[in-house]
Design brief:
InterPro entries: F-box-like_dom_sf, F-box_dom. This is F-box domain-containing protein. By secondary structure, this protein is α+β, with helices and mostly antiparallel strands. The chain folds into three domains: 241 residues, no CATH class; 94 residues, no CATH class; 165 residues, no CATH class. The chain is built from 23 helices and 15 strands. A hairpin with a 4-residue loop joins β1 and β2. α19 crosses α21. It is elongated, with a radius of gyration of 42 Å. It starts with 32 loop residues before the first helix and ends in an 11-residue tail after the last strand.
Length: 714
Amino acid sequence: MAKAPKSLADTPRNARDGLPKKPKIAHASELKHGEDEKHGSSLRNGENVSTNQNHALWRRNTKGMLALLPDLPLDVLFEIFGHLLPADILHLTRTTKVFRRVLLHRSAISIWKAALANVPTLPECPPDMSLPGWTNLVFDSHCHNCGNAHVRNVLDFNLHVRLCGKCAKICLFSAKNLDEKSKRDKLILRCVPFSKWNNGDIQFCLLAAKNDFLKKMGDPNRDRNAFVKDRTTAIKVRKEHAKRCKVWFEKQVAQSQREVNKIKNERKEAITKKLNELGYKEETKYLEKLAVDALYSWPPPVICLLHEHPSVKVPKPLTEQMWLNMKPKMIAYMADVKAYRANEERLSLLEDRRILAHRAWRNYREKHPTTRFMPSPVTILEWPLVRSQIELPSEHAVTEVTFRVLFDKELPGFLAEFWQVEADKLARKHPCNWPCIPTDIYGSGVHKLELAICVFKCRGGIHLRDPECDPDTEFEPPLFYPEFLHHPCNSIGYRHGRDPEAETDEEVDALDSNPSLSVDKQYKGCRRKAWSSQKLDPDEKASRVVKTIVEACGQDPRTTTVTAMDQLDPRLVCLKCTFGAKPDGERLCSVWTWRNAVNHCMKVHWGSSAVTWQKISDEDVVQARVLEAKEPERRHLSPLRPKIWRCTGCVDDTQDPGRMTMDEVLTHYDYVHGLDEVEAYEEGELYMKAPECAPPQPLTVKMIPKEVKPAQDI
């Protein structure tokens, strides 16, 4: 048995325990002549002479410090080292070769045990590791393969290794490369330690451990069954030990983070106190409020928060010298905060004024209910007369009454111009030339948009977010008057999207953040935008189909309006589906309303203009309506309860629930408005038909129409 050395000089030079040797940390007194020349050259390059002289004086004063420590008796050294922490012992092994030899000698085992005992909560050393190796795994921060420093978090207690990202790709073997059907691979999974590296989803093992296991399994002199049994038992023990180590390590990390946070908070409070003494108390209070708001709001503030400032978040206690060094930076930072605060207060005031204007607009709409298409709240906010009131200097008082007076006086003229300009702009997009000269859409004449053949389609996509919209169908019914004027894509847009009516990105941000413009109850992630028919395109195919149907009903497409067709309410037979055969009193045919006929042709016949129609007799129309009323029951469907109603009190409000059934209207008024006798009010007072919604159509029925006169077909 080897004899224990009595002093450091007696320790053998070949004592090692598998610890990776780190670069030598040279003492200041061990600087070589070449390094002195470096300092001399730096002086010649113009560096501070007194600073370098101070460094030289420090080197002279520290020369010989602890120089006699290696000459002390080992029992004295062991007693001293026994009071150190494991990380300190580990660092001592890397200071000098003499210390490394004595601390890695077998006789120094008591030092490692005593040091580890100074961390009472640390789990015991695994049986397959030495105490220095265990200390190196737990308390070091170097990669075990390349020696790269600061590899703190990529640690695995099951694999007993710490690797950097680059070495992990080389030293680890993925379980995905193993076949569970293979007996050999099954043994590897059972007998080699695997772990989810770096908290990932894939199991890895050390490539060296896998190869070592296969090598031992290939030994013909080894009892394989006993070997596999021993390895399986060892793996279970290792996993249990790794779990305890992981819990301990996470607690240590949390404790360390708490200590760092405490130091940071104390430093921040000290800096805040210094700033308050300089007269920045309002700015520091504003930053505290901003930090709290940032936890619950998005997007985060543009300006750097106090606790995130590079000079504040340093985990070091604040000293007077540190404060003197950072004082100019902090004063400049406070100037930026002051300017940012003034700008944010101005933006907040503008937003409050927009909310007041929106509230006054809603009040105006309640006092003047109408079925006409109306400008959106954003259009009103962008109206120059309203905008000038919103952008008045901050010292001017602007209230809701200010906007109410303005609306009562100026809105009638603005609305008349808005209706005419927007209607004519949309009419010019459609290729239909009847009537040639558009007349007032709400006057005595017929406007082009009112014609049945004036059909549009939308490419906006907002309406697809409607809960009643079927996401699985690609067919979208064409839009007739007045539905396309009230279409949601005209006045609603995606939040955080570019608004073509806004002039700057700042305006878009202001509209996005305005809570009164939200329509999340109807369309998630959307808000109101300036009214625009930009997303509406002429549906020429549908227009040609309508022209054919109108002519089949004996009407003039140049003058027949949508309202006239709804009042006529004809029933038609598709001669394309009957292969050209007309009703003769014997043939069973599908009978369509004129709107359903348009949808049928667009969906089934791809909008072909070659499809012809025949209007059935008025007598058969009466019978068809009777059958349509019974059709849901015949198909075992519940009665139709279309969502065609809207609450007049919630128009343009954030609480607007959108289209509702009549039962939902009653429930809405009971819970939201506190009214339970809605039936006593007439349509248009508390509720109205949704103008963007087409009239509900009955189910298509099959019947045997009689033969009609030649004048009724085409």
